[in-house]
Specification:
The structure is a single chain. With 253 residues, this protein is α/β, with parallel strands linked by helices. Helix content is 43%, strand content 17%.
């Protein structure tokens, strides 16, 4: 590792304070090192490392909901934590509109500028790891897997609802969301499913049920959907899948 040219690796620099005295102060390299450790601890996947609020681009002619989503994300960071009062963000929309990009962008900025402890968590992968922990040959327990999810200041729960609904998945979602809700912790969620109740709330024929697309209520249960309404600011994003269509994005602003 290359030594800092300012402090020669000591971590301190000599400066003159307001009273004209020479004093020792932590070098900027120490702050950068701490920031790097916090980002590493956030476990942001490599493919999302460059996802910041400054690199989010909106293609020409895009729905206005995308620019509004970016403004909401920026405002959320500016107001955190006093103005957000323990609330998080719920990004909804179809695949490829940039939900995860904005969620990670908010997380990265809060880690860098607010010094928070953050964690990125893929919903499907988390459930898979928890199920695997039930194997007697695996040393990791469910509690050990969930402990950082419960403890982190800001949690990004990506692709909520990706796992088909079951009593077990609904219980696991309830355990995570209720714990963070009760502790007023910030949770940022992305989902491909509409923020609507389950089919149980509608009188549908068998044929209508067959062609009806699942909602978030169908995937996590209406009780937890109601909990999210209390926990998060809704951010609905409408647009085309830029990853599949190859749409050229034009930088917004």
């Amino acid at each position: 590792m290359t030594e800092c040219p300012i402090c020669d690796g000591v971590g301190l620099v000599r400066v003159v304070d307001e009273a004209g005295r020479w004093v020792s102060r932590p070098c900027e390299c120490q702050q950068m090192e701490r920031e790097g450790r916090r980002l590493a601890a956030a476990q942001i996947p490599d493919r999302y490392h460059d996802c910041t609020l400054d690199t989010y681009e909106i293609y020409h002619g895009a729905d206005t909901s995308l620019s509004q989503a970016l403004l909401t994300a920026r405002r959320f960071v500016e107001e955190y934590p006093a103005g957000t009062v323990g609330k998080g963000l719920l990004f909804t929309g179809s695949i490829g509109v940039g939900k995860t990009h904005l969620a990670v962008g908010v997380l990265q900025r809060l880690v860098r500028e607010r010094g928070v402890r953050g964690l990125f968590c893929d919903f499907r992968e988390l459930l898979k790891n928890i199920q695997n922990s039930y194997n007697p040959q695996v040393n990791t327990t469910e509690l050990e897997l969930l402990k950082p999810v419960f403890a982190t200041d800001v949690l990004v729960l990506d692709d909520l609802g990706a796992q088909k609904s079951s009593g077990w998945t609904e219980d696991t979602v309830a355990l995570i969301l209720n714990s963070r809700y009760n502790n007023r912790q910030t949770t940022i969620i992305t989902t491909n499913y509409a923020d609507l109740p389950s089919a149980l709330n509608f009188q549908l024929t068998k044929e209508e049920r067959a062609v009806r697309e699942d909602t978030l209520g169908d995937r996590i249960g209406d009780r937890m959907l109601s909990r999210l309404a209390e926990m998060c600011i809704r951010v609905k994003m409408t647009g085309k899948d830029c990853r599949q269509t190859g749409i050229k994005r034009a930088r917004f602003g």
